[in-house]
Fold this sequence. Notes:
The chain is 35% helix and 20% strand. The chain has helices at residues 26-36, 53-62, 76-80, 88-93, 112-122, 139-150, 163-176, 232-239, 247-263, and strands spanning 12-18, 41-47, 68-71, 85-86, 98-102, 105-109, 131-135, 155-159, 181-183, 193-196, 220-223, 243-245. Strands 2-1-3-5-6-4 form a six-stranded mixed beta sheet. A six-stranded parallel beta sheet has the order 9-8-7-10-11-12, with helices on both faces. The two termini are 35 Å apart.
Amino acid sequence: MTQQLKIDGETRIFPIIGHPIGQVKSPASLSGIMADRGFNGMVVPIDIHPQDVAGWLAQARAMRNVDGIIVTVPHKVACLAFCARASARARASGAVNIMIRDGDDWIGDATDGHGYLDGIAAEGFDVSGKPALLIGAGGAGSAIAYEILARGATELALHDIDAGKRDALLARLNEAFPGKARAGSTDPRGFALIANATPLGMREGDPLPVQAEFLTPQQFVADVVTRPAVPPLIAAARAAGCGTMPGSGMFNAQAVLLAELLMGMRSIDA
């Protein structure tokens, strides 16, 4: 049972920044983990337009009770530039989703891939030795791409409507994993894992990120979308008989990791 949240003058504040921010579940769950551990801290949502991120981060640096920041869409790529140091996976993916204070500096990491693949593993699927298709080369997609290859996928095909963003990520991936990453499409045929790392499915009327009519029961389909609870891609995949992981699986898998980083129980290797 979650302990009662303590709020007083010694409470440590951990903003989660994004735009929009209404879809995030982190404030309650991460604050609950902190309360259960007896840690006096809380996670609060902050809605920031992209053009205001730099100014807000300058103010956050001046707030001496802000020890860390969680970063969500669309700020993950931009926030890497504000980190004095970052983990190897954050540098390779070109994005961060968490920033931890080190004096007046920030140290960045990218845990989305870790959470995404742990969530998939919890559903019984192992990407090692198998080909994967990933849709989306943004902040979350970049971290997921890195982790798919780090866990032994034979190849990763990457698709993004922004060819420049896709190619930049492919270059970073092939530097870390030579010859393993290539451009892909929305056609899922020939892949064991089909992974969506775009917001498609959050809004009613969004197109599906892949051609779902080609899905087969032998494939596993994963999504980053947490609201609705069963995104349209996951619904289509289940109708085709696929194994699936909705965005909640990724979220749950990395919640403890994020909370322990914020509380200082783990450190970022950077």
